[in-house]
Amino acid sequence: MKRNQIICGDSKQVLSHFPNNSIDLVITDPPYLCKYKDRNGRTLMNDDNADGVLPVYKEIFRTLKPNSYCITFYGWTAIAEFSEAWANAGFRTVGHIVWPKKYASKEGFMKYQHESAFVLAKGYPHKPEYPISDVQKWHYTGNRSHPTEKAVSVIEPLIKCFSKPGDLILDPFSGSGTTAVAAALNDRDYIGIELEHKYCDVAERRLASVNFYENAIYA
Ligand SMILES: C[S@@+](CC[C@H](N)C(=O)[O-])C[C@H]1O[C@@H](n2cnc3c(N)ncnc32)[C@H](O)[C@@H]1O
Fold first, then answer.
1. Residues contacting ligand 1 via CB (< 6 Å)
2. Are 89 and 41 in contact (CB under 8 A)?
3. Is the confidence at residue 217, as pLDDT, over 70?
4. pTM for the predicted model, two decimal places
5. CATH architecture, domain defined by 5-218
């Protein structure tokens, strides 16, 4: 299993070729199963298809090392389905993180103004040496590279808290490669998996510039 690569394909299929107990940490941002469409009409693959998303958690559990973490964003409208998939895969929930936003992504019954993720455990991992708050600072990216692009600065505190240099971090719903970029910038190894070729290309480009700047700094 080659480290530091973006694999273009379906996570469930791709991960089925990965060995058991090989990943140190998963940080991922799956489709929220809410039929997302942004102001420009951009949609996400599998956002209307739970069968393309939820079975991946079983593979995540299998490929994670014993006593490790999976941090997963989720969409609250599909919390019942996500919770069932996580529990069926074997995960325990050990934390919940909220990112309040200064702006509302949508208005309806409420102004929808936060993002959230669960911290799931496979087995009984060590608690982090320096735990972070479960209320975290949000940064808006402008979604230029991807319709739901997370900021590297949102992912970095998770990486620093839940992994150590040299660890292998997997993101099976990699999009524009934000988790991989955050991993590379923090001396972790990464594997990103993404269905859409255009986002695999974006991720490769982002990672190439990380490598370019790092080589320039250490040259
Ligand atoms: C919410 S987005 C991730 C965005 C990412 N966090 C970023 O910063 O760019 C989820 C991504 O998962 C991809 N996806 C959906 N189903 C997938 C599957 N079965 N395997 C791999 N990728 C999948 C979608 O194409 C989409 O780009």
1. 10-12, 29-31, 44-46, 52-53, 56, 146, 148-150, 172-173, 175-176, 178, 193-196, 199
2. no
3. no
4. 0.96
5. 3-Layer(aba) Sandwich (3.40)
Single-letter amino acid code for the residue at 208: A
Q: Which residue shows structure tokens 């480290």?
A: 3
Cα–Cα distance between 63 and 14 in angstroms, integer?
A: 11
Pick from 13, 44, 58 the residue to mutate for probing ligand 1's pocket: most ligand atoms within 8 Å of its CB: 44
pLDDT, tens only, 133-153: 999 999 999 998 899 999 999
Instruction: Give the tokens for residue 219.
Output: 């040259």
For residue 151, the ligand 1 atom closest to its alpha carbon is 8
From ligand 1's centre to the CA of 28, what distance in Å? 9
